[in-house]
């Protein structure tokens, strides 16, 4: 009888124990946590690409502007041959959209004596006129005249000097008739004129760079050079500048051009050098 009772107790308790075990196991399973890791790498990559695209757009815009400016320069200079003029009427010419024109079929007006190298390299600057205006500058250029010292700041104000800030910089430069890199003349009143930024660079500078390159090729290279500011009547601001050059013994450097003293978007008063934007 006792044995039977023990068996009944075991049979009664066992299901309860098993149920409890099942609950514990189920409870253990429910306690397992699943962690989700968010990946932000694609957002960072997208942000970098957006920044990169903005920078590329800025670069493209700058390049497009440079291309447009270069094309304008090319178009103007391709038209030079159609704007040929004689020396005598330069002061009476009016700007018609082409800043540089050819004079005398591009032939400089030098005599045989002018082209002589018997005196070696030299430079000469005309006296200021009665209105204190700069006159012509002449030279027989050679690499021996080229300076090694860095150019110092300019302080001489030539006639017509009424400078002002415009889009992109200053309206006027103290323009050297003969560029500093060719002879080292800097604060020389006889070598400075009031010139617009575009007259000074790229127009005059382009010719000066061609000359400098030729001179540096050989110590025996010479160039006869003359630069003449052109005034109309008693005006104090030059209407333009005539540049003439002839390499000695060859035609590597050979030109006679006139550059109008103008600046896009600015109206100049040549009587005194004052100006109006627009």
UniProtKB/TrEMBL annotation:
Gene3D superfamilies in UniProt: Extracellular Endonuclease, subunit A
Signal peptide feature range: 1-26
Type VII secretion system protein EssD-like domain boundaries: 116-247
Domain of life, source organism: Bacteria
Ranges annotated as spanning the membrane: none
InterPro entries attached to this UniProt entry: DNA/RNA_non-sp_Endonuclease_sf, Endonuclea_NS_2
Species of provenance: Companilactobacillus crustorum
Taxonomic classification: Bacteria, Bacillati, Bacillota, Bacilli, Lactobacillales
Alphabetically ordered keywords of this record: Signal
Keyword Signal: yes
Protein's UniProt name: DNA-entry nuclease
């Amino acid at each position: 009888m006792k044995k039977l009772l023990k068996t009944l107790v075991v049979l009664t308790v066992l299901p309860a124990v098993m149920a409890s075990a099942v609950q514990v196991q189920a409870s253990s399973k429910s306690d397992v946590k699943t962690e989700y890791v968010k990946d932000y790498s694609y957002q960072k990559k997208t942000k970098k690409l957006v920044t990169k695209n903005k920078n590329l757009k800025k670069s493209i815009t700058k390049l497009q502007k440079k291309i447009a400016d270069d094309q304008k320069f090319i178009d103007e200079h391709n038209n030079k041959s159609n704007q040929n003029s004689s020396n005598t009427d330069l002061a009476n010419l009016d700007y018609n959209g082409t800043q540089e024109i050819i004079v005398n079929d591009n032939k400089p007006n030098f005599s045989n004596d002018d082209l002589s190298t018997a005196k070696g390299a030299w430079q000469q600057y005309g006296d200021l006129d009665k209105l204190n205006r700069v006159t012509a500058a002449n030279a027989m250029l050679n690499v021996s005249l080229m300076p090694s010292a860095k150019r110092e700041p300019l302080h001489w104000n030539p006639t017509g000097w009424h400078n002002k800030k415009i889009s992109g910089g200053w309206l006027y430069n103290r323009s050297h008739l003969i560029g500093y890199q060719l002879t080292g003349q800097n604060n020389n009143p006889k070598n400075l004129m009031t010139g617009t930024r575009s007259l000074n660079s790229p127009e005059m500078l382009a010719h000066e760079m061609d000359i400098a390159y030729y001179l540096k090729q050989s110590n025996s290279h010479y160039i006869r050079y003359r630069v003449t500011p052109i005034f109309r009547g008693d005006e104090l601001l030059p209407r333009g500048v005539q540049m003439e050059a002839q390499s000695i013994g060859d035609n590597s450097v050979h030109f006679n051009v006139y550059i109008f003293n103008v600046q896009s978007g600015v109206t100049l008063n040549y009587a005194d050098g004052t100006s109006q934007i627009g």
